[in-house]
Each structure stands twice: as structure tokens, then as C-alpha cells.
Amino acid sequence: MINLENSRFLRQPGPLLSGVEISNFEQEFGHLPSNYSAFLRRENGGVGQSSDAQMDGFLFYGIGSGSSSLEDEWREIGVSGPTKILPVGESLNTERLFVERQSGEVWLDGESERVSLEEFLSKNFDRIGVVKSLVGMIANECIDELERMILSGEIDESSVLEKGMSLPQFAAFLGKERVLKLLHEHGFGLSGAMHSALIGPGVSRPLIALLIDCGVGLDGVDAQGRMLCDLSSAWHDDVRMLAAERSGLK
Fold first, then answer.
1. Most buried by CB count within 10 Å: which residue of 66, 84, 187, 214?
2. Are residues 195 and 233 in the same domain?
3. How far is CA 156 from CA 121, 134, 168, in A?
4. What digits encode the pLDDT tens for the residues 96-111?
């Protein structure tokens, strides 16, 4: 296991990218392979986590990710439209990962075998910045991408974010009703979501009503033994009134 505390690989992935930002990037550096473009939209770089100690800590460059971003690396070596071989990451031993512009196949520096990006990722990495990506996806309500990840099995009800918060709890905390609806429709449990909603910055009457309609009651207590109805009274009048109206019904 690589100690990332003092390593050059201790970097955040870049910000979530839109299709416009990808297009702007391609205007400077040329067309990207579709599989690599999709990877940037989903992850945008970050540190890979692997059960293989030799691969753990592998850095994938991201667009707009600060020091040694993808654009900085490519400008330094003069990548342009005609460039066929594109460096997209590197290991602690400075072995670079390349992607071939036309085929989208990847290989490590010094190795002759070329595989698809998807095969390389699935073979070598358990996750690549997925926690931070999920935080951004929920905050920005990236419904289509979240649903894709649910259907592909990349995330499920057991998935947790930093500090152990479940996906529904985090969505409720931020008041992201569309994300909550999606998670509920795909069978995610909403345990703890009401408490997260009541203490979060996104609390509102529609949010609380949605949770109640999904079967989450206001008659329980949180981990500190506080009644949820009491918590609701500390917020807006409309939330307090809804809590009073519904607390005996669910």
C-alpha cells in the first residue's frame, strides 16, 4: 500500500465535466476516444484504489484538477490533433499509461500488450475517485449517470460516502429530491434520511413530504435520542406544520 500522505499523487480529481467542457478541451487537443471521454465525464481523474499494491496509488490525470492536470501534461509534451499516443496517467514508479487516439486501447509504458480502457480499469482497480465523483453527482443531480451506475452495479444500497453517510442520507441532507426519488425507485433504503434532511441546508416542506410519501416517518428518534418532530420544529414554519400534520400518520 502506497503512503499517499507525502506523495505527489495526493490530489483531488478534477471537477465534474459537461459536454461543453469536453468539446472545449478537444478543440485544443483534438478528438478524444469515446471510451476515454466517457471516463473523464464519469471520474475526471483521481487516484485509483487497487487490491494490487503495485498499482495502488495510480494517478489518472483530470481536466482542471490543478497541479499536473491533463491539460498541463499535454501542453508540456506538445499534444495536438495529429498526436496519436496520449498519456492519461502514471504510477508511483512513473510508468505512464497511454491511450491510442483512434482505437481507445491503453497500455503501460514498457509493456507491449494493449487492452481496452474498460478492461484495464476492471482488471486493476477497485475504484477510481468514485466517492468524490458521487458527491459531485448527487450535488449536481446527475440523474442519468447515477442511474447508469446503479444499473451497472457500480453503486448499490451498501455504497457509502465519506464518514459513512449513505447515498440517500447525503441526498436528503442537500435536499436533492430528484436523487432521492431515483434511489428510492431502485430499492435503496431510506434509513436515516429524515434526520439528514432535518439537519441539512436543503430542508424544505416538499423534501419532508417526499420522504413521508416514501414511507419514512417523523415519529422516530435520531442517534442522539432526539425526536424527529422536535428537530423539525427548529426549522421553517411550513416544515414544522407538515411534521405536526403527518407525524401521527406515518
1. 214
2. yes
3. 19, 12, 11
4. 899 999 999 999 887 8
Domain that holds residue 87: 19-128
Cα 36–Cα 40–Cα 44 angle in degrees, nearest 5 = 140
Alpha-carbon gap, residue 96 to 235, rounded angstroms: 52
Of 103, 69, 99, the C-alpha closest to 87 is 99
Would you give the distance in Å from CA 138 to the centre of its chain?
A: 8
Report how far residue 109's alpha carbon sits from residue 32's, in angstroms, rounded to the nearest whole number: 20
Split into its structural domains, the chain has a count of 2
pLDDT single digits (tens) 59-114: 788 898 665 689 988 998 999 888 999 999 887 666 889 999 999 999 988 788 89
The cell 435520531 sits on which residue?
222
Supply 220's cell numbers.
Answer: 422516530
CATH of the domain at 147: 1.25.40.20
Beta pairing class for 46-49 and 59-60: antiparallel
* Contact yes or no for 92/86 (Cβ under 8 A): no
| CATH assignment at residue 45 | 3.40.1580
Is 0.70 surpassed by the pTM of this model? no
Residue 53: what residue type?
A
Three-state secondary structure call for residue 25: helix
Q: How many CB atoms lie within 10 A of CB 79?
A: 19
Q: Do 82 and 152 belong together in one domain?
A: no
